[in-house]
UniProtKB/TrEMBL annotation:
GO terms for biological process: sodium ion transport. Belongs to the Ca(2+):cation antiporter (CaCA) (TC 2.A.19) family. Cation/calcium exchanger (CCX) subfamily. InterPro entries: CaCA_antiporter (IPR051359), NaCa_Exmemb (IPR004837), NCX_ion-bd_dom_sf (IPR044880). Pfam families: Na_Ca_ex. Residues 131-279 form the Sodium/calcium exchanger membrane region domain. The lineage of its organism: Eukaryota, Viridiplantae, Chlorophyta, core chlorophytes, Chlorophyceae. This is Sodium/calcium exchanger membrane region domain-containing protein. Keywords: Ion transport, Membrane, Sodium, Sodium transport, Transmembrane, Transmembrane helix, Transport. It is found in: Membrane. GO terms for molecular function: monoatomic cation transmembrane transporter activity. It is a multi-pass membrane protein.
């Protein structure tokens, strides 16, 4: 039947805060639909805060009103991230947010889409600048959530007496990959399959190269050393081996099928990951890792 005005309002809230993804929930299996609905209600404040602080420039989810709101609120969100709560910092952030919000409102109020602001060139400065702002705010959110995940994982490992390696390859690995797990399929459903597939490989590559480099660099600077010993444990060797073999298989299958991955290839991917998890868990439980 037709929804009441409260039901229509709730559907509108879900649509706005999920960037339209809630419209696709009805097509999911019942248990997934219920899980999405329950998790959305529990995480409603987080959804609202992210929507209000991360500029969105994707034409499919662009909203002039939300863009102005994100310009107003993002400077305050930066203060919260850096724990800068002094009166001067708050007043400065409010002034910057007001200026950004007013400027964006003036530039976009008569536009149906995001103006390019090419300044007489072929480069779209407007979307580029706002994309960088959105990326920066997204990084702050990811770092905040990752810190909380690490705290929860550490507490869980201490309470259950689990080996750190076992916790890392299960709870921490899954927790740190949830963004890609939900984001990449959503991107593929919107017609950006190549981008989503690239992100599946670029994400781990970024973690292994940039994140590890930044982590070791920070450690060296803090400890005043230029080298440190890293133990190459069996569980790490297993992960590296499985990843290398899987990438070789993906490349080989793609080359043998005219640069296409067969539809049923996901069965091999899931089986390969399940095998890795089982062996790694056995290594962790038996103390060999």
């Amino acid at each position: 039947g037709q929804l009441s005005w409260t039901g229509q309002l709730w559907e509108k809230v879900k649509h706005e805060l999920t960037l339209g993804e809630s419209d696709e929930w009805q097509e999911l299996p019942r248990w997934q639909r219920v899980l999405r609905e329950v998790s959305f209600k529990c995480l409603l404040p987080a959804y609202a805060a992210q929507r209000a602080t991360i500029p969105q420039v994707d034409p499919a989810s662009y909203s002039q009103q939300w863009l102005v709101v994100s310009m107003l609120c993002s400077p305050l969100a930066v203060l919260v991230y850096f724990d800068a709560y002094s009166l001067g910092a708050v007043m400065t952030a409010m002034a910057v947010g007001f200026s950004l919000g007013l400027g964006v409102h003036i530039l976009t109020k008569d536009e149906e889409g995001l103006p390019t602001l090419d300044l007489g060139t072929s480069f779209a400065f407007g979307p580029a600048i706002l994309s960088l702002a959105g990326f920066f705010m997204g990084v702050l959110w990811i770092d905040t959530l990752a810190s909380e995940v690490v705290g929860i994982v550490s507490l869980t490992s201490r309470l259950l007496g689990l080996p750190p390696s076992l916790v890392g390859l299960t709870l921490l690995a899954v927790g740190s990959s949830l963004g890609d797990f939900f984001g990449n399929p959503s991107m593929a459903r919107r017609g950006h399959a190549s981008t989503a597939l690239t992100a599946c490989f670029a994400g781990p590559l970024f973690n292994m190269l940039i994140s590890m480099a930044a982590g070791f660099g920070s450690f060296f600077a803090r400890e005043g050393v230029t080298r440190t010993q890293v133990q190459f444990t069996p569980d790490i060797a297993l992960g590296v081996g499985c990843l290398v073999i899987y990438n070789i298989v993906v490349a080989s299958v793609g080359l043998l099928n005219n640069s296409r991955i067969p539809e049923k290839f996901y069965l091999f991917a899931r089986a390969w990951y399940a095998m890795y998890i089982i062996i790694a868990c056995l290594l962790g439980i038996t103390g060999l890792s």
